[in-house]
Amino acid sequence: MNTKQLLTVLPQYALPHHALSALMSKLTHCENPLWKNLFIKTIIRLYGVDMAEAKFESPDHYASFNHFFTRELKDGARPIASETDAIACPADGVVSQAGAIEQGRIFQAKGHDYTALELLGGDAERAKAFENGSFATLYLSPKDYHRLHMPLTGTLKEMVHIPGRLFSVNSATVEGVPNLFARNERVVCLFETAAGPMALILVGAIFVSSVETVWHGVVTPPTISEPRTWHYAENAPVLQKGAEMGRFNMGSTIIVLLGEDKAVWDEELIAGRPVKLGQHIGRCF
Q1: Label partner for 277 (CA 20 to 30 A): which of 50, 179, 201, 241?
Q2: How far apart are CA 227 and CA 187, in angstroms?
Q3: Do 145 and 91 contact (CB within 8 A), yes or no?
Q4: Is this prediction's pTM over 0.70?
């Protein structure tokens, strides 16, 4: 690690991740008008949030900072790639990495990778579905729209809440913490699509006060010591491509997994490239 990474990463090992995130939850859900408006306006100014595309542009509309952070967009602000074989980007953000799952391993950053088996909670059957498949890792910064949407139409089969740490998911930490995405707390959502199995992994991070899905509501917190699993054999939710599937209450990372020979990413889907919800990021087979 270089000096910047050392200064960014090493202190995080000692931090009480979940306690800090719980405190952040209280602050972001506070409905005191003076506090929440100051917080909202500061973030808009610091990160250049484009409120012109928000359904409600005035900070006064939002009951809390979290209400603002998970704001809706105006109708039509994010057209969804409509071609039958198009994979639609599930979020606004920046590409962390995208490519092939090679020998069960997913590339994180130079010098670091992790296994699909670890990411998916140690279940070999889940990991087998994505052997030699494809992955895309997208980072959402504080300026981004923080609702998550479906890359493909899918039928929900299983959801798993996996405990873990809450390291930051910014670029310096991703480059410095081994196995980061397989160490952090996360929610794994497994779907069946026309292109076969698809996993959407919602990765928690420090100051992410909660992760929720549209079919379940808030999944985390609570903080847990053992994985929790939900199966959807009967009356399984079917979500159309482009439909909202979840949200981060504060920013984090979403990882998309698809099976072998089921997807090819666009050439432009490279590390550091900004992306927008709904844009064409690849084709499925």
Answers
A1: 179
A2: 10
A3: yes
A4: yes
Catalytic residue among 17, 21, 92, 144: 92
**Amino acid of residue 109:** A
Tell me the H-state helices in the chain. 3-14, 17-29, 33-47, 65-69, 116-119, 124-128, 171-176, 180-183
Whose tokens are 């919800």? That residue is 277
55-109 pLDDT, tens digit per residue, is: 999 999 999 999 999 999 999 999 999 999 999 999 999 999 999 999 999 999 9
Residue 149 annotated to the active site: yes
Write down the pLDDT at residue 1: 61
| 246, 177 Cβ separation under 8 angstroms | no
Question: pLDDT for 234-272, tens place per residue?
Answer: 889 999 999 999 999 877 899 999 999 999 999 999 999
Among 107, 172, 152, 179, residue whose Cα is nearest residue 285: 152
Active site residue 209: no
Catalytic site residue 96? no
Tell me the two tokens of residue 61.
Answer: 């509309």
Tell me the pLDDT tens digit for each residue of 138-169: 999 988 999 999 999 999 999 999 999 999 99
Cα–Cα distance measured from residue 64 to residue 28, given in angstroms and rounded to the nearest whole number: 6
Q: What's the token pair of residue 189? A: 């959502």
d(CA 55, CA 71): 8
- CA angle, corner 185, sides to 266 and 31, nearest 5? 100
Q: Which candidate, 139, 212, 135, places its Cα nearest to that of 173?
A: 139
Beta bridge partners, 104, equal none
